[in-house]
Hints:
The complex is a heterodimer.
Chain A: E1 2-3, E2 6-7, H1 10-36, H2 40-64, H3 67-88, H4 96-103, H5 105-114, H6 118-139, H7 146-162, H8 166-170, H9 182-207, H10 222-238, H11 247-275, H12 290-313
Antiparallel strand pairs in A: 1-2
Helix pairs in contact in A: 1-2, 2-3, 2-9, 3-5, 3-7, 4-6, 5-6, 6-7, 9-10, 9-11, 9-12, 10-11, 11-12
Chain B: H1 2-22, E1 24-27, E2 39-42, H2 48-56, H3 59-62, E3 65-70, H4 71-74, H5 78-88, E4 91-93, H6 104-113, E5 117-120, H7 138-145, E6 151-157, H8 159-162, E7 175-179, H9 190-202
Parallel strand pairs in B: 1-7, 2-5, 2-6, 3-4, 3-5
Antiparallel strand pairs in B: 6-7
Helix pairs in contact in B: 1-2, 6-7, 7-9
Amino acid sequence: MKIGNLLIxxxxxxxxxxxxxxxxxxxxxxxIYYSKVKTPFSKELVIRTKSWWYIxxxxxxxxAGPFLPATILLSYVSFVALREMFxxxxxxxxxxxxxxxxYFSVPIQFYLAYNNQYVxxxxxxxxxxxxxxxxxxxxxxxVQKIGRSxxxxxxxxxxxxxxxxxxxxxxxxxxPGFEIGGGSLVLYLIILCSFNDVFQxxxxxxxxxxxxxPNVSPNKTWEGLIGGVICTIILAYFLRFLTPLNGFESLIxxxxxxxxxxxxxxxxxxxxxxxxxxDSGNLIPGHGGAMDRLDSIIISAPAFYHLLSYFIENR
Amino acid sequence: MNNFFxxxxxxxxxRPWLRFFIGVQFQNRxxxxxxxxxxxxxxxxxxxxxxxxIAALPNHKFQSTRTVAAWEYFGKNVLSRRLMSFxxxxxxxxxxxxxxxxxxxxxMDLELKKGKSLIIFPEGTRGTKGEIQDFKAxxxxxxxxxPDIPFVPxxxxxxxxxxxxxxYLIIPLVCKVRFGEPQYARQEKVEDxxxxxxxxxxxxxxxxxxNNNHFGID
Lengths: 315, 218
């Protein structure tokens, strides 16, 4: 379908329409519920749904908008995540220059992804930044506890910039017989990740008894994980019209994405537990910080991209 | 007219830059709308402190709010004085006035009598370690002389990392401007007022008790 200068596939439009319909229904129900019963719980529901509207609007721009604004939006999200990680982490006064330089890797990395310079995209942060930032830190002259900052700043870059920029690469996926476009792949990834979080949370609340890692996160249970994985696999199978995958491949993708979402959540909970905070920020009302929302997609994005390339190349 | 231009610059450039690039979050801004005239009292770690407070002001309060700043630091040349009065409506006070010049407190008192609101950092200078230093007594004397003017406590959380004293690089990091409710200081003694004001500001510290105005390790 052609809207203005934009070519949007019907599949994407239908999926977005379903998402927005669900949001409208949720907003109406929770709004009525809140006007009847004014409790902290009902208020929380309203606030959360309002935040979901902003997230859904961002996703709509990502998948249906032109490529350049989508890339700029993604790089801004990555910048916000990086800023949040730098804000909650413990650094030294002499790391200021290192932190400042680290921010410049965001535009560079996303520029490389935008131009599909795949090789440079792959090595820029793992080599240049892993050498450059420690060298800048060394130049400040302070060596006490430098090892901590040396490893922390580049690893944060990997987590928030490198991993997230794989989403931009999805726009470049070309495959004969697959005309829907990269936006639909991004939509597939985001829907699976978000619903995987919801499924694992819901199953954990409903049936959760056996904790997997009680020291890291008391919310993660075997029941939640297994229920979430099964539901995500089913969803991945039925949404495969957004991708060039066949039935079997979509089942594997669903399984991998569900596990990656779980890994991301566990990593982020451990980091937060170590720093002694509950949420990574309060950027999104009702949801916590940006990293609380992005934790699953950060690990899933590279996994999804490489899985997809593997399936396409081995046809 | 200058006021109008300054406010437009705040609205289209400075406030979006602070919010979306630096990561400043304004909390409980509605506290500023509740009273006609007030003295905003906050902790001081960075040049960004007064900039963010003024960016958070409601539009109609911008013209009547003045920042108190040190003549010794900001009055050095004409350009600095011009910029300070354009962006901050600064009252440049001398820490040690020459003979025949009015005392700092009298200058501020006069502005309050004119109906202006003030932004005061009673620590006197930017703290180095991000801790709140003891407040100077001037603000308490001012409140004692004007018992009908409320004060608005504000805690600036995180600006000491964005641009601390003796630093030039500005680093984007999440920081918060947390306003408290307007209050009247009706105590008898100046010392009691000072304690009360300082306690109101410290109460607004972040609930997890982390000192966000200073990097953790050094």
